[in-house]
Specification:
The chain has 14 helices and no strands. Helix 6 packs antiparallel against helix 7 and helix 11 packs antiparallel against helix 12.
């Protein structure tokens, strides 16, 4: 009986701290992704001020995504072996340095270096913060992940809005004002790190979850991971492609001013956040796998229709 109580200890402790920790880590995710999305939102400004072509713009995205994505498995592997609760603070510090560098960048190389630093900060933040969300889930993993993700998605959506009303009117150096965002994130993550360090000392997987995991063969695990990686890659491939050049598409195709185009980008990214809020609870009810498949395949018709929007607009206006 005692062993049963011990195995359930984290389940009983988690609900008391889950709301506070989940809200805190979601806010930090929002702050982290606001910083990231500023890079995409200021592309028109950088293109003009530094006389960049679209290939150079694409390479900024590549630099950021490469450091943000490729380094994540390495960070996850190291933190699995050597948990470091306060690495989240270090990651946000890297993003802070990247922000300041981009704010005062006068060359293309400096912009690339700033994007790389922000990407490195993101690569440290996401694996560890996802673990925090799971530890604080109280067993409701999909809902906890949705709360965590919606912070990031909403932060990504806010970036173009902030750029439209702050960076565009006040210039590139105004990006330095967002260092306050990074500093606030570091303060919050210091508190989260303290909770995380204590939570690591408790078993994070229930007895039923251990049995379910043990029943899986290596082949099943490898197949599931390969499928998940493929789906995630496909999703982010088109999502990043659209967000990187959506502003330019609206400007050149529909003659929209930069600020208006950024508002449309905000609506697009805000819809991503709304989908995350809806998908989490649904995943707990009908299964995460179904939600993942629908989230990937359900947007396919709309993605294919997007390039045709210009011809449709001209047809209806005629």
């Amino acid at each position: 009986m005692a062993s049963k109580t011990d195995s359930n200890a984290p389940q009983g402790a988690a609900p008391k701290t889950a709301v506070v920790v989940l809200v805190a880590i979601s806010i930090c995710h929002l702050l982290n992704d606001v910083i990231q999305s500023l890079i995409l939102a200021i592309y028109p400004m950088l293109k003009t001020s530094l006389a960049l072509d679209f290939a150079q713009i694409g390479f900024i995205t590549f630099t950021f995504q490469a450091t943000a994505s490729v380094l994540q498995p390495l960070v996850g592997y190291l933190t699995d072996r050597y948990p470091t609760p306060y690495s989240l603070v270090v990651g946000m510090g890297s993003s802070l340095l990247g922000l300041i560098l981009i704010a005062f960048a006068s060359t293309y190389v400096e912009v690339l270096a700033g994007a790389a630093l922000i990407g490195m900060g993101s690569s440290v933040f996401h694996p560890e913060s996802s673990r925090v969300a799971r530890l604080a889930s109280g067993g409701r993993h999909s809902t906890a992940q949705a709360v965590f993700q919606v912070g990031g998605n909403f932060g990504t959506a806010l970036g173009p809005l902030l750029a439209a009303f702050i960076v565009i009117p006040y210039g590139q150096t105004s990006i330095a004002w967002f260092s306050v965002v990074a500093l606030l994130g570091m303060v919050l993550l210091t508190g989260v790190g303290g909770w995380y360090g204590k939570a690591l000392k408790l078993p994070s997987v229930s007895h039923d979850e251990r049995k379910a995991i043990a029943a899986l063969s290596r082949r099943e695990v490898a197949k599931s991971i390969a499928l998940l990686v493929t789906l995630t890659f496909s999703k982010h491939f088109y999502l990043v492609s659209i967000t990187s050049f959506y502003i330019f598409y609206l400007i050149h195709t529909f003659d929209l001013p930069v600020q208006t185009a950024q508002l449309y980008l905000f609506l697009f990214l805000g819809s991503v956040a709304a989908g995350t809020v809806i998908g989490g609870p649904i995943g707990d009810r009908i299964g995460t796998r179904r939600v993942i498949w629908w989230s990937i395949l359900g947007v396919l018709p709309f993605t294919l229709a997007l390039p045709m929007s210009a011809s449709w607009e001209r047809r209806f206006s005629a």
